[in-house]
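Notebook entry, structure prediction.
Reason for the run: the old model in the group folder had no record of what sequence produced it. Starting over properly, with the input documented here first.
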Amino acid sequence: MWRGIACLSVVFFHSTLFCYQAMQSSGQPLGFAGVIVALTARGWAGVPLFFVISGYCISATTDSARRNPRPARKYFFRRFRRIFPPYWTCIMLTALFAALLAGVGWGSLVTGQLGAILQVPHPAQLDAWQWLGNLTLTETWRTQFGGSHAMLVFGPAWTLCYEEQFYAVMGLLLLVAPRRFFRTATLLSLVIVASCPVDFPKSGFFWDGRWLLFAAGIGVYYALNYAGARGRAVILAALLAGALSDVLWRAGMLHPRLHFSILQLNEAYAAFTFAVLILALHPYDKRICAIRAARPLFFCGKMCYSLYLVHYPVTLAASHALFNAGVTTPGQTLAVTVPVCVALSVVVGWVFHVLVERRFLNPQKDVTAAAIRVGAIA
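New structure, fully documented this time:
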């Protein structure tokens, strides 16, 4: 359910960006519909929610795998199979989509809009270095080692670059310290916190602070499975401190040399607050899962990877076409653009899930014993 909420919030975010940009430029009073559009502009918060969920779920995976012989090999194979084939398929379809729109004279629907916020470049714009970075999910940090400037085939791939790094680090911890896995993950988190005041190239790497968003999910998993009362109190205190980091920064109570952007502080607030929420709601998971009105969220959550991959070019083209057609006001955007973009994204996402992603899902019998013991978070 939380995956569905996180994914749909990102779809809403991209569906209303043209309207939100126009609202900001006009300076007119918002009104009720404008306030709702402004709230959807915070839909980027679905990304840090995904990071927390990944931290929880991959902790369950590695916790189960570390009890088996050669756990790292199976872990890396499963992560590669799960992530890259659907991603490669989507990136090629996205590039083809941009090329086809350009071929019929509609290329402006997906290129050069709102700066770097919303755009899908024509495939011919990318050089060999940029294609290498996109295909290997290293484009966010590839430029620190050479090649031309960074360019993503579709914007949301930056989050997958961080996901890939998280999976890789967790696999390495599984390889070198399977018996002290959670201790080592905690030590790494503390090292990253300690390195925050140090000014060295971090852009695009997990040690820029975003590892801590995944670590919040690791903390929730450990609290529910292994921690005693004192341990749970320590984890809860750490999560609350992370949630308050934005407030502390604005109040001047954090170290002045901490190299965090406002966006990263906002992400921390969303991620750590969410981690506290799922920890508090855990006793009520079964009741929440029984709510019939939540079934559409479960449906979207089941195919969230496909929905996340395909929604961007679909939403970008549809919302821009409607904006050009005169659907520009907040009320019109909420009544027309958002439903159209969500419906198209869900339909295309389900087709992609059935035809592509399901072929690379890990077998159901491999669901981790730890996840079964705890019960999936709502």
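Summary: The chain has one domain: 2-374.
The old model has been moved to the deprecated folder.
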